[in-house]
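Help!! Second protein's tokens look totally different from the first
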Amino acid sequence: MAKPLTLGLWLAAAALTGCTTAPVTGPAQADLQIEQVRLKGEGPPKGPEGACWDKDVTPAVIETVTEQLHVTDEVRDDQGRVVAPATFRTVTSQRMVRDRQEVWFRAPCPADVTVAFVASLQRALKARGLYAEAVTGAWNPATAEAVRRFQAARGLDSPRLSLAAARELGLIAVDVGRL
């Protein structure tokens, strides 16, 4: 009687070894740069009915260039020895690479940002190693910094939560019509 049980276990084990599972991958990382709107005039942008917007300011980018300009040549004697070295002067200049800009992006509506929502946000950020404080449900500087770090890796360096980041964190349902 022990033989059929052993044979059954062996067959079950053999069947299971042939099973393979596909690797589990998480959702793709959002590119929050495509969610950003830069306006020439006043905002917020015209958008879908009921859409909520938030904004942040990108700083100006200034480039500083330092150059050595040749002033005089070196002077040599009859044997070719340097009597007076060449002289140079340093010139430093700055130029504006990009002006300061207001950047608008879709955001969760204020009515949706409840204590429970912020607590869920803190838990989601904590699970990703970005938030180390206690989960309180209160928006605090540590929460804002964790949001900024999460979004900066996706192209939006802002402590204000974008709608796309909230969706990626699983806090807001994804609109199936957008897929």
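Here's the second one for comparison:
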Amino acid sequence: MVLLQLEGVTKSYMGQQVLRGVYLSISEREFVVVRGRSGAGKTTLMKIMALLLKPDGGRVIYKGINVWSVNNSLRECLRKTIAYIPQFLDLLPNLNVFDNIALPLIARRTKSAVIEERVNEIAVELGIKGFLHRYPNSLSGGERQRVAIARALASSPEILIADEPTAYLDDESSEELYKLINVIRSKRRVAIVIATTELSANIPGADNVYILERGVLRNIS
């Protein structure tokens, strides 16, 4: 089943066209990789897919709904089923790992007992149970990335979008992250989309690999 479709999506900033008629389709449990050099427009594309940024032209269809033709309330409901992890993670340094993961649940006024259960379940799954009491600044890059993923999964999304998740990781940590992504996809039945500047590295488990160049997205699988 197709979850998300981009149909002829365009986007410009200050007169410069960043995306030129992008077409893309994401299905349930699909693992999609978007490659591109720095400045290619990957972050813009990721935010449009996460329903955080309105395109200038074209359509974004999510679950059969043209998301920018409906009211804000319905669009916000749809947006809550897509998790977006920015490149710089946005973990709050004044909150410990447990509270960072719990943030989406707190925002939805989830009961404390449910928050406790879900955070601990995800922490065990992602191998971070041992440092729920620690703070982001005391963690390695790979550990912070896992915390960001755990926070994204807390709201049980149908699509997980990560903007350059390996940007600050060494090769070993990147490999571990990709293994984790495939485990998550299999266990939680979530579609995953990542953007990366790695133009040639093998990314295990990817169903479709695209490259974004001069605003044009093409499949290179």
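Reply: Different proteins will give different token patterns, so don't panic. Strands lie at 2-13, 16-27, 31-35, 57-62, 65-66, 82-85, 159-163, 191-196, 208-213, 216-219.
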